[in-house]
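Lab notes, practical 5.
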Amino acid sequence: MTLEERIDSIHAQIAQSASKSGRSPDDILLLAVSKKIALDAMEDAYRSGIKDFGESKIQELKTKVPLLPSSIRWHMIGHLQSNKAREAVQFAELIHSVDTLNLASEIHQCAEKAAKNQKVLVEVNVAGEATKFGVKPDSLEQLAVAVNEMPRLELHGLMCMAPYSDDPEKARPYFAHLRNLRDRLESHLGYQLPVLSMGMSGDFTVAIEEGSTIVRIGTSLFGDRLK
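Output from the prediction step:
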């Protein structure tokens, strides 16, 4: 299957899942996860209509940015260390992985110095997995309120990673949990949080049915990564 055929297949699955949940496929962003993906494959994806790319490591992100079209929208989707906040603010339109007050404060300070309003998501560890990053659900509100009070940060929503499983249905409760957390948080903050970044290659159709607005697709889009 060619890259264009894979993209078409993913868009078809997005449309089908959106229809099941009474939504428009235009409401769901296909974010190409380009970690360890060769530049020529990324350029092919860009020419095929993909405009949003997500990287997990700052070093790889800042290396790729000058070599690819300037109209690409870059997303930081991996765990972010506070000492990398300045570069994340420099390159990323949306940071998906804010999970501590210390990190949020550092991003805010860097955004202030750059005179930039930085869009962010709070990452939530919905399954309580020790190997995953993210704020605990019972600490989400406290962190979100603090982020909301930082004038250079724009809180747009939440992100999560469901536990890995060969059965995408097993991810459904975790996606529903994140959506419910978002709904309660909206009520507390008094404004809408439109973004739910959830769902990857193996479970994105279920994530869309549960309200995802950004699906992070790597393997199903590009195939195997470079070693």
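Observations recorded by the TA: DSSP finds nine helices and eight strands in the chain. The chain has one domain: 3-222.
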